[in-house]
Amino acid sequence: MRSPWRRGPGRSRRGVLSLVVVLAMVASAFSVPYLLHLDGYVSPQSIGYARYVPGGSPASQENLTVNVTDNGYEPSTLNVSTNTTLSLRLVNVGSVEHTFTVDATPNQVIPANITPAKLLALFAPPNASLVNLTLAPGQVGYWNYTFHTLKGPSGDSYEFLSLASGGYQFKAGLFGFLNVGSGVVGPHQVVFLNATGSITFVPAILIASPGLPIVFEVGVQGALSHTFTLDSIPNDTGLSNSFSNSQLLAYFVAHPPLVNDPLSPSAPPVVTPPIPMPASHGVYEYVCTVPGHFPGMQGHIYVGVTPQPPNNVPVVGQVVQVGLFVVAAVVLAGAGFLVLMGMSESNTARRKRETPPGGDPGTSPPAHP
């Protein structure tokens, strides 16, 4: 007589399958809530916090040294304030001749795909550059200059480059930017954000304290050009997401923005002068006015106001609740599968008991002669 504790090969396989289903249900119970939590949670990287800067007295002279190599300028970004004399020392540490040429037109970025002939023609006029020094290998040169005023609304950026080798050194990477700011001297706040190639601002939520001017440093990630346009009206309901591009531009003509700076992928980050907000508390919106980028490309800075999570992102409690619903559905489905498998096994066993050896179910046993 077969022991009731012994099982045939078919039952062993079904037992293993049942064990696998149970383990999968347990794994789901532990993994699903966390996966959903990560998908729906508002990560800290989506919110930017202002940094406090105590400020200080501006220097009357800025002494900087730039090494000119065969591969580029070191450093390739220079920063100076207005009404400050820049005393620049240039050292050619390369093996060939280079130039240090500063474009006289502020906020102009020379296209990276410009031909060497057009580049030389661009700097051919006598007033096209602020300085044009030629440096032989090992030679040291000096340039002193004072920027008294700003041409742009929030600062100026002058591109410098090498015109040697018939303009081909610019194509090889010998260029940089000289940024001129207003010279922040008092306490202020600094916030950082980027305009991305996916037509978004990152972060899209900024938090700042009331009472202190705010400096915005805005960079570009990707190959697209943008603008950083900061609405001057707090808690503004007149700036509608349904605006066409022409309506958006007309709105900012009627309501001049606090900042309206172009952003180029080939230019350094834009650094605004310290901006005192008109209201001590409020929410200010920043957008991109490039056609097709609004309303997707917008963000908000909360000054003395606690931000709310976006409407389309669930809070943590909702995410966990969704995860529990999914786990419950998995458990119920697994339990139902086990019940159906048990019923199928029971029916199979019953049919076997009702079927004589060698016969078919539903037929009478053969008659003996």
In short:
The chain is α+β, with helices and mostly antiparallel strands and 369 residues long.
How many β-strand stretches?
20
Q: Within the largest sheet, what's the order of strands?
A: 1-14-20-19-16-17
- Global geometry: globular
Number of spatially distinct domains: 2
Structural class, from helix and strand content?
Answer: alpha+beta
> Are there runs of 5+ residues with pLDDT below 50, and where?
1-8, 27-45, 311-328, 361-365
Q: Beta-sheet strand percentage?
A: 25-35%
Report what the structure shows:
The chain is of the alpha+beta class. It has helices at 9-40, 116-122, 168-171, 245-254, 316-354; strands at 47-49, 51-53, 61-68, 73-74, 77-81, 85-92, 98-103, 129-135, 140-146, 156-161, 175-181, 188-196, 201-202, 205-208, 214-221, 226-230, 259-263, 270-271, 282-287, 298-303. A 6-stranded mixed beta sheet has the order 1-14-20-19-16-17, with no helix packed on it. Strands 2, 12, 13, 15 and 18 form a 5-stranded mixed beta sheet that branches. A 5-stranded mixed beta sheet has the order 5-11-10-7-8, with no helix packed on it. Helix 1 runs antiparallel to helix 5 (316-354). The two termini are 31 Å apart.
